[in-house]
C-alpha cells in the first residue's frame, strides 16, 4: 500500500486464530513524505539521505517521529482494510495491539561524517 504519511508500507493479516498481524514501516520513507509535504528539496538513498536543503529541519522531523505516529497508521488502515475481527468483536473489546519485533537503527556516526565507525 502507499500511505500519505508513510509512503510504501504493508500490513499482513494472518487468516487463522489469533489472526496475527505484521506491519512494516520505514522511518526514512516517513521522513521523505514529511519533506514532500513541506516542499523541502532533498536527495535520498534507498534507506537514507544524501542531501537536504534544511538538515536541521530534517533532524527535527526525525526526532518528532513517535509511537503515536505508528499507532495512527495502524488505526487508519484497520478501518479501511478487510479485517477478520467483526464489528461485534470490536464492540466486545477484541483488538490487535502493536508491539515492536524488529527495529533497525543507523550507526550513530554515519549521518554526520559519512563514514561508518569501526566495529569492535
Shape: elongated
Q: How many helical elements?
A: 5
Question: Roughly how much helix do the residues carry, as a percent range?
Answer: 25-40%
State which percent range the strand residues make up: 15-25%
Q: What's the count of strands?
A: 6
Main sheet properties: 2 strands, antiparallel
Low-confidence stretches: none
Q: Cα-atom Rg, whole angstroms?
A: 18 Å
Strand order of the largest sheet: 1-2
First and last CA, distance:
39 Å
| Whole-number count of domains | 1
The run of helices and strands is: EEEEHEEHHHH
Give short descriptive properties of this protein:
120 residues, alpha+beta, two-stranded antiparallel sheet, two-stranded antiparallel ribbon
Question: Can you put this structure into words, describing what you see?
Answer:
- This protein has helices at residues 27-37, 55-64, 67-78, 87-91, 110-113, and strands spanning 2-3, 7-8, 10-13, 21-24, 42-45, 48-52.
- The mean pLDDT is 84.
- The strands form three sheets. The chain has a two-stranded antiparallel ribbon. Strands 3-4 form a two-stranded antiparallel ribbon.
- The radius of gyration is 18 Å and the shape is elongated.
- It has five helices and six strands; from the N terminus they run E-E-E-E-H-E-E-H-H-H-H.
- By secondary structure, the protein is an alpha+beta fold.
Summarize the structure in short.
The chain is of the alpha+beta class. The chain has helices at residues 27-37, 55-64, 67-78, 87-91, 110-113, and strands spanning 2-3, 7-8, 10-13, 21-24, 42-45, 48-52.
Secondary structure: elements and pairs:
Elements: E1 2-3, E2 7-8, E3 10-13, E4 21-24, H1 27-37, E5 42-45, E6 48-52, H2 55-64, H3 67-78, H4 87-91, H5 110-113
Antiparallel strand pairs: 1-2, 3-4, 5-6
